[in-house]
Amino acid sequence: MKKVLIIGAGGVGGVVVAKCAQLSNVFSEIVLASRTESKCIAIAKQVKQNYGVTVETAQVDADNVPELVELIHKVQPFMVINVALPYQDLTIMDACLETGVHYLDTANYEPKDEAKFEYSWQWAYQDRFRDAGLMALLGSGFDPGATSVFTAYAAKHYFDEIQYLDIIDVNGGDHGYPFATNFNPEINIREVTAECRHWENGEFVTTPAMSKSQSFTCPDNVGTYNIYRMYHEELESLAKNFPSLKKAQFWMSFGDAYLKHLEVLGNVGMIGIEPVEFNGQQIIPIQFLKKLLPDPSTLGPRTKGEICIGCLVKGIKDGQKKSVFVYTVKDHQDCYKEVQSQAISYSTGVPCMVGAKMMIEGHWLKAGVWNLEELNPDPFIKDLDKYGMPVRVIEQDGWGDLEV
Ligand code: NDP
Fold first, then answer.
1. Residue 349, pLDDT above cutoff 50
2. Domain extent for 335
């Protein structure tokens, strides 16, 4: 049983706190800190009402290492669970090193002034964490996170060699707004509008954003959706950790209305990250847009439908070609009933809690900086299934017809 400090009181933070509170035999004490303490207090109140668990709260600016160090010294947690924004990854890692506590996050570092995300910044902490005997677990959400574990699970149990990987993220949910994002709008839009990169024959190949799409029929009657190829951070670590991969791609579903809005917002300059002077004030267009859009943590009651996220892995077993789809399906309203959140925050929060549980229980605890696919997938899959994200596997001979 360990005490955890959770930083970030947004859509994902709310789910992580709720899931940790459901397991008080693992997470003995929970402290929730964020920039706006009133949001922490609201989450703590809800958790007290639902589970009778007391969550302590605090205010912190996670861009400020001395402030973080002071808070961590005061709280004395076993680990920090970072569900603030990718901008804060390095400052929180620095503070963990200074105070000697373990670290976990759900998204890789991204500098505020450049729409670029990659692991190099965080992988550079490898020696410092290893030498300090501390662990940093990177990307323990759904994608990255569960998708990294699904790939490792398929490779371990179903193949001698994996060669092709298609990560498919379908959101069949509808929130009824003409345009809204399911997680932090700034991070979401920066990710979706970035140039596409996929792994092919030993290198990353760059293509224009959203320039390749196809139709995908999800299992379990979730439906047929247009999926678009885009860059996603787990491709970087999976290509490194599974060198037998000849091709690795990431696909996400988008509705026509979402894409049309994004195109128009882009054309008029509303998703820019450079400051613009307006009435004597410096305004960053994408941050102003975030202010206007619905808060993702309020989408829960309105979102109906299901998500289907999985890894289609193709490779060789006993000299024969085979394919395996490891996936999960989750209903938005079921998530809302359980933790008052839509399925995107839910499906990030559950693997986040499970990753922390793996560290606390010692299944995964080892010094250094790790991506999830580098660790034993079995206990994680078991817990993902047990704590709200059912894991299913479809196995078939041959390589099927989804393009590789
Ligand atoms: P939100 O914007 O809803 O929440 C972010 C929270 O972090 C807010 O409470 C915000 O405070 C707080 N925060 C921001 N800056 C600071 C700071 N400097 N100091 C302290 N707190 C700060 O985001 P989400 O909950 O949707 O996403 C959280 C994280 O999860 C993001 O990193 C996102 O990329 C990641 N994610 C990962 C996924 C995966 O599958 N791996 C999927 C979805 C999200 P305030 O309320 O004051 O703004």
1. yes
2. 146-339+391-397
